[in-house]
Amino acid sequence: xxxxxxxxxxxxxxxxxxxxxxxxxxxxxxxxxxxxxxxxxxxxxxxxxxxxxxxxxxxxxxxxxxxxxxxxxxxxxxxxxxxxxxxxxxxxxxxxxxxxxxxxxxxxxxxxxxxxxxxxxxxxxxxxxxxxxxxxxxxxxxxxxxxxxxxxxxxxxxxxxxxxxxxxxxxxxxxxxxxxxxxxxxxxxxxxxxxxxxxxxxxxxxxxxxxxxxxxxxxxxxxxxxxxxxxxxxxxxxxxxxxxxxxxxxxxxxxxxxxxxxxxxxxxxxxxxxxxxxxxxxxxxxxxxxxxxxxxxxxxxxxxxxxxxxxxxxxxxxxxxxxxxxxxxx
Length: 330
Prior knowledge:
The chain has helices at 22-26, 33-40, 55-70, 94-102, 118-132, 155-158, 207-211, 221-242, 260-270, 281-284, 291-298, and strands spanning 5-14, 18-21, 44-47, 79-83, 108-112, 137-145, 163-173, 178-186, 194-196, 217-219, 252-255, 308-315, 319-326. By secondary structure, it is α/β, with parallel strands linked by helices. It has 2 domains: 5-178, Thiolase/Chalcone synthase (Peroxisomal Thiolase, Chain A, domain 1); 180-326, Peroxisomal Thiolase, Chain A, domain 1, CATH 3.40.47. The strands form 4 sheets. Strands 1-7-6-4-5 form a 5-stranded mixed beta sheet, sandwiched between helices. Strands 8-13-12-11 form a 4-stranded mixed beta sheet, sandwiched between helices. The chain starts with a strand and ends with a strand.
């Protein structure tokens, strides 16, 4: 029997209608369009507006599109995992809520929180369930409403993030396509540089934590940048080396969209030219867990069956990693 791999058989995304431009941010906080673009590459980001709308609502749009594209019913899904750092609520899992809203009744579901690397962790987890035969059809969702935890008085972080959702469908493949290798790592000592100070069990919400604005993203930018540049590039370079791939063999690098300079450094280490790098950070900013599936969705018509695709990400935790996929659609 041929080896079983988990192949992506459909991909979809969703971005909210409202666009927050750098020009509008100039009216909200002390910053400029030139300052933002030169340091991050971001020109605008999409923001979810509307009372009572959460991460699950964006994810539902992506999942419904995914099912429609593949031409399957929600009842055929066996498993759904949602990578997010902005769940609808502490519990139940946002994945459970997505399933209920979409009509997925025959699946088990849960969330994975690995910050901006969560989509890769989730993709790897789902792939192992496919490979084992325990699951036939799995949906991996990456979705975040980062505007819900961004302090729009903090110019160091408020310019970075946007809201979005992306999703992929995984199915078994015995023809050599799908997820072929993964490198996933973490270092909890990095938590001091990138985290949300309050709201967890160590520091539950109080009037004091709210007044101190501790329920927003905190980031010490320089240590995060230095660590991300090295570790994301290391993982991508290592996965190429152990699969005997050169830059010429790679059709596309699909990197987490956190910072244009980090993306450029990773591509350079891999020996991949700029035309082989998916970049949409200028339109969406850092949508955390949605960045990689959004890129796959936007570049889908440029991907061909058999293409070697390298995914790479870095996130708070610290978490980082890379995944090697042989594209199955086409």
